[in-house]
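Input record (one chain):
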Amino acid sequence: MRDLSRPVLSASTLDVGRDLLDAAHRHRLGAHAVALAYRVLISLVPLALLSIALMGAFGLESVWQGSISPTLHRHLMPSVAAAADDTAQGIFERNGAVLLALATVMVVWNTFRAMREVEHTLDEIHEKQRPARAFLPGVGRRLALAGVVDVCILGALGLFVAAPRVVDDGTVHQVLVVLRWLPALLLLWLAVAALFRYAPAERPQTRWASGGSALVVGGWLVASVAFGAWSASVASYKTALGTLTAFLVLTAYTQAVAYVFVLGAQLDETLRRRESGSRASRR
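The corresponding structure, as predicted from the sequence alone:
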């Protein structure tokens, strides 16, 4: 039985919470989250096209036919669902190399633009001024980070969708349904850790397994599961009101994803500053 004389939250935990809220206000995390959410939102269409093109390239048409298409027919008007089916089938049946290349360029370009906002956000969190650098090294670093983030996100999506399709049923299928979460979450963790380590002007001694990255990956997981459950069970796009509601929920989802990211980055910096202050006081 828990000792009722002891507080549920320690004083240090409450201090961290107060410091985190104060830093979030001082560093304008809300404004940065809105800017990042906008980048996520405009990346969804090219990301969807790229995903369909990759399904065709890797022979995963059954994912569309068995999972995505039935869901669209349940939630969309028949004419819209049929148009989506025709578009996907057209990509599968024709040479999708041009579309694959175009969608890849659009996704990488949007992520590349988002890297600039990530840099601004992390620099303000670390309270460091970015030094003037040559143009090409800065572009190269953002492109490298954009590539890492896109590969990790697409890899996580691919593993999550394709792993259960390796075996259609039976015990192995159930095992794959459960085990797919581990590599998908590890890829997301890698993307977050790379951004926390290499995007800011300052190179913090960020641990690959930090409280901030755990908050980000856990928050993304909770938000994505909730959004997926709502999309599959509640959402209806057959009326104007349903479509508007779906867009508002999608916008709220991107805002949640972005805000969790900046809050995780601020948590790591808050903990680092408190640890540095504690070490200095002991000297």
